[in-house]
Amino acid sequence: GAPMMGGVPQQPMWGGMQGFPYGGYNPATQMNQFTDPNNTTVFVGGLSGYVTEDELRSFFQGFGEITYVKIPPGKGCGFVQFVHRHAAEMAINQMQGYPIGNSRVRLSWGRSQNNSGVGTPYRPAPPPPHYMGMPNHGPGPYGPQHFG
């Protein structure tokens, strides 16, 4: 029964412990690195210089209530801030590559104006645990105890 005692209880334990911090964290961190769940500002890139804020608003107001539309002069881009997050998500999904004026726009999340100074609430992923190397020693920890 020795191999069973040595091998079996150990594997699930180590496997489970390593799997946890990573499985649980990554999808969330990648999604939210630049997207804070309260952000409702859509960045519209690739605008032609002739589009006005009113025109831009008319393209996006179908998705939901808009807080403001801003087109900084001469930048070839604009910002549309929605009241609700899901409206902004829909706009990004459906207006991607849409021709406005005479050019196709590319959409992404803008930096929301009202809390630009505040960091996102997500902490970075934890550093890899220190015991990563230990399972390689297998029965190692039992060794020295025989002599004591």
UniProtKB/TrEMBL annotation:
Keywords: Repeat, RNA-binding. The keyword Repeat applies. GO terms for cellular component: cytoplasm. Residues 111-148 are annotated as: Disordered. SUPFAM superfamilies: RNA-binding domain, RBD. It holds the Pfam family RRM_1. GO terms for molecular function: RNA binding. It comes from the Eukaryota. Residues 40-112 form the RRM domain. InterPro entries: Nucleotide-bd_a/b_plait_sf, RBD_domain_sf, RRM_dom. This is RRM domain-containing protein. It comes from Photinus pyralis (Common eastern firefly). The lineage of its organism: Eukaryota, Metazoa, Ecdysozoa, Arthropoda, Hexapoda.
